[in-house]
Write a structure and sequence with these properties.
Layout lengths: L7 E3 L2 E3 L3 E3 L16 H12 L4 E8 L11 E2 L3 H16 L4 E6 L31 E2 L12 E2 L2 H20 L4 E6 L4 H6 L17 H14 L5 E6 L10 H13 L4 E5 L17 H11 L3 E4 L5 H9 L5 E4 L1 H5 L3 H9 L11 H4 L3 E2 L2 E2 L5
Parallel strand pairs: 3-4, 3-13, 4-5, 4-6, 6-9, 7-8, 9-10, 10-11, 11-12, 12-13
Antiparallel strand pairs: 1-2, 14-15
Helix pairs in contact: 1-2, 3-5, 6-7
């Protein structure tokens, strides 16, 4: 049995393999209501049909002002819950499992989406064009974005309640797991790092972890004891004076105590203009430190592109799952191709596709060549 295609159980949920679809922003809610559409159903179902053990959605805002762009998906109202239910149904119909990534963009919110052909990139959308006043640890902007408003304690308490409410809606919508976005300079990360949080109230100094830990604890209560809870972190801030993987490992221990089951280790995104090299597997060492020192399962992400590379990450004990992003966008059947390359019995299959896989081992049986 390969490591990549060994099942992984978190709480009461078993994932068929450890090749997971990484959360990737899509900015595809064109009507700006935060409601997902038929496009999202097709988008996420393709990864499940392609054999991914878990599909994690794009960052999904817990409040309207928590969106990265006006075209972001949301889970702050019931109409969005109903729309997401059609997506989870599509994924489940082809045998997959799906998690929602809940997020608040903080000072990095309200920007133009910057897709090919768009006129603007990495700039804030003016209020008259559908933008909004953003919320941050302070009034210091991210790069050339509009300055945020320094959040009050009451507003941060509201953010915690919003994460819990959105998590309840996610369970109602049929999601199999919940992930909190505590990375990439978004609000939970912005409050966490000493680089961006120099507050002198209860949310700063020794209370920098308060927002993320409180959100995780509130979400655990909201979703009950059976649903797996993941947190994405920037294991390394990639900023002078910022957090490193050893700091994140200490944080992971606190997250484990409030009911977090797996820490999804990315890096960076905190400050504009950070310089780091994205070589293959560049974030795996951070996941390994968090796993070893934090005593919590981890996922590794970042330029993991081929089957044997992913297999080695798991065999080395650097992580418990791998998040595949751009490689799965290029090939939604990445997991099936990886199973064939690793000659992995028990890999997830779609029997109706047998013509494409004849002569390979699927589900422990060799698919016959049709006469």
């Amino acid at each position: 049995m390969t490591a990549l295609f060994t099942p992984l159980t978190l709480r009461g949920t078993t994932f068929a393999n450890r090749a997971w679809t990484s959360p990737m922003c899509m900015y595809a809610c064109e009507d700006r209501t935060g409601r997902v559409t038929a496009w999202h159903r097709a988008h996420y179902a393709q990864f499940a049909l392609g054999g991914a053990g878990l599909v994690v959605t794009e960052a999904t805002a817990v409040l309207p002002e928590g969106r990265v762009t006006p075209q972001d998906a949301g889970l702050w109202n019931d109409s969005q819950t109903a729309a997401w239910a059609t997506v989870t149904e599509a994924v489940h119909a082809v045998g997959g499992k799906i998690a929602v990534q809940l997020a608040h963009a903080g000072r990095k919110g309200g920007k133009y989406r910057g897709l090919p052909g768009d006129a603007h990139r990495n700039r804030s959308v003016p209020v008259e064009e559908g933008g909004w006043s953003t919320l941050g640890a302070s009034d210091e902007p991210f790069g050339d974005y509009a300055p945020p408003r320094s959040a009050t304690g009451d507003e941060l308490d509201q953010v915690v309640r919003a994460f819990a409410a959105s998590a309840r809606r996610a369970v109602e919508a049929g999601f199999d797991a919940i992930e909190l976005h505590g990375a990439h300079g978004y609000l939970l990360h912005e409050l966490l790092s000493p680089v961006t949080n120099r507050r002198e109230d209860d949310w700063g100094g020794g209370g920098r972890e308060r927002l993320l830990v409180a959100a995780a604890a509130a979400v655990r209560v909201a979703i009950g004891d059976e649903v797996p809870l993941l947190v994405r972190v920037s294991a390394e801030d990639v900023a002078p004076g910022g957090l490193d993987a050893h700091d994140t490992a200490r944080l992971a221990r606190r997250l484990r105590e409030v009911g977090v089951d797996l820490v999804d280790c990315s890096s960076g995104g905190l400050v504009a203009g950070a310089d780091y090299s994205e070589e293959p597997g560049y974030q795996v060492p951070g996941a390994a430190v968090v796993r070893t020192e934090g005593g919590v399962p981890t996922a590794a992400v970042g330029r993991i592109t081929d089957a044997w590379q992913a297999e080695q990450v798991l065999r080395d004990g650097s992580a418990d799952a791998v998040m595949i992003g751009r490689a799965m966008l290029r090939d939604p059947h990445w997991a099936r191709h990886a199973a064939a390359e690793l000659d992995a019995p028990g890999a997830p299959v779609e029997p109706r596709y047998y013509r494409a896989w004849r002569g390979t081992v699927l589900d422990g049986l060799t698919v016959p060549t049709p006469v």
